[in-house]
Amino acid sequence: MTTDRDTTGGVRWHLRAFWNRKRCRPTTALIADWLDGIQPVSRELLLIGGSAGWMMSSRWLQRFEHIRLIDIDPLAPTLFRWNHGRALSKSSTRLEFIQRDAMRDLDAILSEYPLATIFFDNVLGQHVYRVLEFDKAECELNHIAERLSGRDWGSVHDLFSGPVDSNTLPSKPEFRFDSVQSEHGPSVEGVSGSALHSRLAAQVGGQGEWMDHATSGIFSLGTTTRLIAWPFLPGYAHWLQAGWVRPDS
Ligand SMILES: C[S@@+](CC[C@H](N)C(=O)[O-])C[C@H]1O[C@@H](n2cnc3c(N)ncnc32)[C@H](O)[C@@H]1O
């Protein structure tokens, strides 16, 4: 596993997400299906790293009265309205954009909105790109659950990603696994760590060295999560982890 330098969000993300939206549909549907099972405690949502919501479920967003979209990207609110505006009007959901670095200001944001449900929308796996030091990013991410203690929160984030070769795809690839958090990160049927990574990468035709997004320790031991394949680009795929933590857990 390697870490690689890359950017997060911005015009590059929007163009890639737009051009590859058909390819992303099965993953978006799996995320929506998982979100359907999440009943948020609050009708106020802090949607962190929501961007344009290219892969977000309008259906789930309609459960909220007030969504605060928090992103560093100034293009986010216009494009988010383009993707979800009509659905949000139908449910009379108010959308407010806050341009802010949510990782730097997380503690302040949590105390400014003490009752809100929080969803990290494919952003925690990008932290390593901004911190640029794997160990530092991993340590910060491993402590995020403590900082969110007592809150209703969830996250979908990159676990790892890498090159794929469509010629090596299995005949019946599996794009979704239920997992439970172990000392070695998510575990599927007792398999975790590098053995699990190899097994998952093989489902999408993974080749060569894959990037670790430093997110394997975000959830506490015993948390149930769902692993979802995301074959994002013609020669490149990700595996995402989706999990939810209740305020009393
Ligand atoms: C991979 S994109 C997420 C895409 C989005 N969830 C979607 O479905 O379109 C990551 C997003 O996180 C935002 N981001 C990255 N670091 C951030 C931070 N520290 N605070 C707020 N937003 C951040 C980026 O600007 C980008 O829009």
Short description:
33% of the residues lie in helices and 26% in strands. By secondary structure, it is an alpha/beta fold. The protein starts with 9 loop residues before the first helix and ends with a strand.
Itemize the secondary structure elements and their pairings.
Blueprint: H1 10-19, H2 21-36, E1 44-48, H3 58-61, E2 66-71, H4 76-90, E3 94-99, H5 106-112, E4 117-121, H6 127-131, H7 134-142, H8 144-147, E5 153-163, E6 176-182, E7 185-187, H9 193-203, E8 211-212, E9 224-233, E10 236-245
Parallel strand pairs: 1-2, 1-4, 2-3, 4-5
Antiparallel strand pairs: 5-8, 5-10, 6-7, 6-9, 9-10
The chain binds S-adenosylmethionine.
Structural domain count: 1
Q: Which hetero compounds are present in the coordinates?
A: S-adenosylmethionine
Number of strands: 10
Query: What's the helical proportion of residues?
Result: 25-40%
Residue-averaged pLDDT, rounded? Answer: 94
